[in-house]
Amino acid sequence: MNRKLTGSERSVWKQGAISLNIVIVAHIQGRICLDELQQAWLLLQTLHPLLGVHLEERENAEFLTSEDTTLVPVREVMATTDTDWQLEALKELQTPFHNFSNAPFARSVLVHSDKHCRLIICLHHCICDGLSATYLLRDILYCLSDQHDRVQQSADNLLMDNLIPSSITLPFWQKATLKTVNFLFGSCKRPTSKNVAKIPMKKSALLAWHISQKQTNSLLKASKKNKVTVHTTIATLFLAAQKIVQGEDKGYYEKMYTPISVRNLLRKNVDTTFGLYASESYISYRYDLEKTFWQNGQDYQKELKRTLTDQKAFNSILMANTLLPALLDRILLRLYRKQTIQFGYILSNLGNLSLAEQYGSLTLDGINGPIGYVQRAEKTLSVLTVNGKMHFTFTYQPEVLTSDTLLAIRNTAMSLLKQYSRETYQ
Predict the structure, then answer these.
(1) Where a domain ends, among 95, 127, 153?
(2) Per the structure, how many domains does the chain have?
(3) On the chain, which terminus has fewer CB atoms closer than 10 Å, C or N?
């Protein structure tokens, strides 16, 4: 491979100024050997081209190239407590990928304890989305259990930027505005990655938990009975908990940033292949204590449908492809250097993933992720369901939010879940 970054990749890369990593943690019964994991990565680098590339800057542009890319780094840690994996996950989350080395945009950690193993995968967001990171975890388990023939090989020509339906275009006024901006500021120089000042990463903390199959099933049934999606129920639970615990003094509390998958909207079916097939939007909704919980959920869902149309799902991608690279880089860097909190939550919900539980001698107990960290959000909540159990992961800034407050939000949300699920059966 030898090509320039696409507009989507560039908008996530952000000149390497800030560490936008995605971390997935698999909880596994059984033991994984370091050599076997390294061999699995070696095979997957041939099956997924984006795992075998590194970044080079030449011809006044960034290129992804596979020439002389090194193997995916793997390290091993012996756990002394049951929460050591959280420290390792945070370390990976906040460690940037080097701009101009031959190392790929992927690395992994094995955290061993007596009976369990935690496999931590860290990837830069510019080569994948949260779903892809989870599918990659599945592919590693296939390789470790000698089922590599089940890995769905990805191709680099399946680029989201090229697969956007031709019927979806920017509105005329946006095209005209971007064209004018390009004309007025088109002569500005693109900041080179080597000269971009790094944006300091603030310390982050992590809280992880899961609910039982029975509780998960109750949430599903309650959502169906009240005619809202599971995603809406989760969002409403945590907006309610935020309102009860934190009040409503902060203007950004009503804004929930939501990464969205566009896999099912593309011209070509990408299925579960590895790559970057995601966009984002945000929903403004202030939880109303004068209404019932499910009334709030139905109102939130109306706002969600209004906001996340097919057209709007691709707007940011189309804009990134329309703006000149130099302007896009400068706008993104200026936005991120502000470091002001703009969202109460980032909510990344991958839904119910149909992953096998057994991979040879390895049993998949659960997954936490996709774990992310964006300093413009007060709280980042990732949710996924695997083997019938829903897994939650909070990341947050201890400088902004105390652990006691976050625990109170978690406990309140889970208490509300029990209350409103129980009402379904009455």
Answers:
(1) 153
(2) 2
(3) C
